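#help-structures
NK: newbie question, is this the right format to request a structure? protein is Gylcosyl hydrolase 115 C-terminal domain-containing protein
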Amino acid sequence: MKLTSLSLIGLSVLASSCANTVNTSDTATSLVHSHPVVKRQNYIEKDGLVVIEAENFATQVLSDKRRWLVFNDSDGVNAKGVFADPDLPHTHGASGNSYIEILPDNRTNHDEELIHGENFSPDAGKMAVVTYPVYFSQPGRYIIWGRAFSTGPEDNGFHFGLDGVWQESSQRLQFCDGKHMWTWSSQQRVDSNHCGTPKTLWVDVVEAGQHTLMMSMREDGAELDKIILSNDLHYTPSGVGPEETLYKEVKLAEKKAYIDIDHYAYILNSSTSFDFESTSADRYYYDKWRGVLAINAGNPALRNKFISAQYTHNKAKPESFKMKLVTLTELDGESEYRVLLNGKLLGEFKNPETKIDYQEAVFDVGMVELKKGDVITVQSNAVTNGKIPEGDITAFARGRWRGLVLQQVN
Ligand SMILES: [Ca+2]
Ligand SMILES: [Ca+2]
Ligand SMILES: [Ca+2]
Ligand SMILES: [Ca+2]
């Protein structure tokens, strides 16, 4: 993600101090160091594996003295930063050409003073806590793997935790081998073995569901590229590791009916709220392809006459509504519609001419007050406009309508 003007807005301190020189390259570098552009992601466990780019953390807190900063090659961070930092960026070889480093780093070797709560945090969860949301479908024990770049003895430790708990089993991920290169480790530092042994760092996921993985500072200057959780004891990552296991959203179903209706109290579907079968032989059929009532104009006896369907209101409390009739336009003709309340005509409507078959048309019936037992009748007719030849005659529109919409008055 490129540095955008949006990310500049949040930079009150730097933006004010650099207000006159905001477009210089030095300033751009400073901005990236100080206020990284973070891609927030939702992770899932997939076949027992969770793969996370460390730089895609969701939140960071307790970061007043030390802070995880995102280094990103595409943002051109290749100069020494504005914070104490003895080593150059290591984006080359990092997964996604990006990683996080905890800065400032003012303890590079044993000769520099060790200050608890500043350049060293022996207790997990006390400094620079970042989080990653993960959905697990399989509970169980997950080995924690980290991919880090260490250049000395005082930049090679990390703490992990889950759901607000920094359990002993996930503290002190340690990197001894593989200095000056991106290296995977799952080794827990213990008093009896400072380098630890492989696959000794883990979290227990007690229940399937949404969880929060946490990572916090142990030593300043530490750099983390990627995190893997695996429930397979035989698994060992190599290279940059697999791709991130991200939750990918699929497209939601868009509405196909009542398209122009954006609010309503009740929808009275023609086919489900109305009685259309118990009337005489002159009755509607259900056009299941379009989900509407229609008149079988193939039967000459049903052409050019009004067919009816009834709805009986059954709500105890009388209430006023704005009423709308939703019909379908047709190429073959402009059907007419009537809406009646207890036999009294409320409105008459005619479909407009159309170039597209079966588009919804919405007619305003007006205000109605409905009480229990009221009967609403909708009528329509099958007509031809003489434009579409069909055999010896022209095709008939079928008086299709989708339903009535009742909207709250206020
Ligand atoms: Ca550095
Ligand atoms: Ca350090
Ligand atoms: Ca470093
Ligand atoms: Ca990375």
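mod (FA): yep, format's fine, and the tokens are attached above. Residues 1-35 have pLDDT under 50 and may be disordered.
NK: thank you!
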